[in-house]
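User: I'm writing a short methods note and want a consistent example. For histidine kinase, I'll paste the sequence; you return only the structure tokens, no commentary, since I'll be parsing the reply automatically.
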Amino acid sequence: MILTTLLYRASHLTVGVLAVAQRRQDLPLQYAGIAAALALTALSYGAALRRGWFDRRHVWADVLVTGCVLPLLLCTWGGVGEPALLGWGMLLGGSSSAAAAIALERFQVLAAVALLLVTHLIGYQLVGASPAVLGGHVNSLLSSAVMAWVMWWYLRRQGRLLDDANARALAAEAHKARYAERLEHHRALHDTVLATLTTLAAGGIDANAPLVRERCAREAAYLRRLIQQTADEVHHREIGQALEEAVGSVESLQLRVTAQYHDLPQVPPEVAAAFADAAREALNNVRRHAGTGHAYLTATGDGDGRGGAVVTVVDRGPGFDPERYVPGLGLRGSVRERMAEVGGLATVDTAPGEGVRVELRWPR
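Assistant:
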């Protein structure tokens, strides 16, 4: 708005400079008038540009000096006796009213516009202007104030709408982050605590076995941290170490795993964590559904030169028909979604009587 009203004032000053330059010898007071208008414009708008907004004292000085006093001086002592010579001085009142409309309070705006209107009426009465000339300048004065105020109102309204939209976006992002955190905790609980409790409830293992008790203690510590909301789930392990921990976790529930690692690459920590968590759940599915106590895990570097990795989990169980099977939380959330979140891919290859092969690949 500062720049808009400054450009508006510059157009009026250009008219004034051209009008005064055409009558150098006849009306010397007009030189002083245009110089005063230029100086006051530089003061008012220079301060506004430095501060970021108008100083109301400068706006009032512009209205009173440039918009009111200068035209009347031109009429009384400037030797102006016809409307054409007074026009450039009255024209400055339009840009004065525009600045007043956006920088002053409502009643102050009305007062400033009223003063400018009275100046127009008196000034053009002194030089004998026709009603058409007076009406045109009054219309310009009022239109300048109204259009500046409407533009300023619209910009403020749009600013408020944008602020509200930003606030809603931030709230949505915060909600999304909280949901993602809860989902990650649900996945971890599904893959660890729930898997342990399900196995113990089935009675297939000795609850007093050292490995089982060690696993229960580790998962109890995780639950305690989760309740206290101080759990640090940021993994900084190599992919091989992360997979070994996943294998050890399910072996403590009496699933025998044959694991082979070959030429594993360096991957980001979050990718190593995703591989380990997805592999753990795939192994849990073998223990729960395959009807066999043996699984095979193979981890290798991806040979396409992109520095990726491929992990496969295979069992020799009865398999299933993919067309009739609806993926549960484990396969859908703990395996596929985990890999997708880090830019990876999880696929399941199975058929009745053929076992199940889960392939985890990063990148896609």
